[in-house]
Amino acid sequence: MKRTPVVFIHGAWLHALSWEPWVERFTGRGFRAVAPGWPGEAATVREVRAVPGGLAALGLDDLTEHYAGIVRSFDTAPVIVGHSVGGLVAQQLITSDIGRAAVAIAPVPVNDVPVNDVPAVPGEGLVTLTPEQFHHFVANTLSAADAGRLHEAFAVPTSYRLLTDLGRPAGPRGPAAVADVGRSARGPLLLVSGQEDRLVPDAATRAVYKLYGDTAAVTDLKQFANRAHSLVVDDGWRSVADHVLGWLHEQGIRGGPAEH
User: How many other CB atoms are there within 10 angstroms of residue 166's CB atom?
Assistant: First the structure.
């Protein structure tokens, strides 16, 4: 029996290494789990911070095409798990019938659902969050010390061009920030929100969930109380990961021979 692949897609201001505990947990359940970085993203947080220029020109189209190619490269259709902008990409792919199932965690909203603003950012190039901004916008349910540790471990600059594609800071949304919410011929989709999320409020994820109301395809919603945008990397990440694993099991999607 082949192992079911899982492709993890991280969001803005986090490095792909932020998924390492998830990769280990899913691998232990028999999945073939991978967390490939964004195009132009160096292998370590230190390297990205030292030479971040490879991310500067990155737009949403680039990100979506990059992960579409990765998902299509597997012999067995993967599960796609995305956080933040990665959650938007996961929805774009599954509604284009790319992938077996998708999980969008604190996803940047698709279509006409409004987005929250971000800290004041420069008009070009790269955007970096200070530890204080990271605490306020990403890890607001944590202590300053715990948020600081996450910032030190995983925070990297992101592309201003990508933020403008997403309608951040306040401005018109790019045409790529869409998903075919009416498509019924797709795999199941799980939307996950954090009740205290300041970057992608729970209300925004619920509004996106309502957009899928007219499709016959499986679409589920899960809210985690008292959790912020950092819910995939803070100390409570296991509860989110295990809910995702349980949901996949309910959809009949299992890892493979190593699962127990």
Answer: 23
In 117-236, which ranges are continuous DSSP H helix? Answer: 131-137, 144-154, 160-165, 202-211
Q: How far is it, in rounded angstroms, from Cα 159 to Cα 122?
A: 10
Q: Are 41 and 34 in contact, with CB atoms under 8 Å apart?
A: no
Nearest to 181 by CA among 82, 112, 243: 112
The gap between the terminal CA atoms of the chain, to the nearest Å, is 14
| Strand ranges, E, within 1-90 | 5-9, 32-34, 79-83
> Of 60, 34, 228, which Cα lies nearest the Cα of 137?
228
DSSP 3-state of 46? helix
pLDDT in tens, 112-163: 898 876 666 666 789 999 999 999 999 999 999 999 999 999 999 999 999 9
In the chain, the DSSP E strands lie at 5-9, 32-34, 79-83, 101-105, 126-127, 158-159, 189-194, 219-224
Residue found by looking up tokens 């959650």 in the block: 87
Mean pLDDT by runs of 10 across the 260 residues of the chain is: 92 97 97 97 95 89 97 97 98 97 97 77 81 96 98 96 82 82 96 96 96 94 98 98 98 75
SS3 182: coil
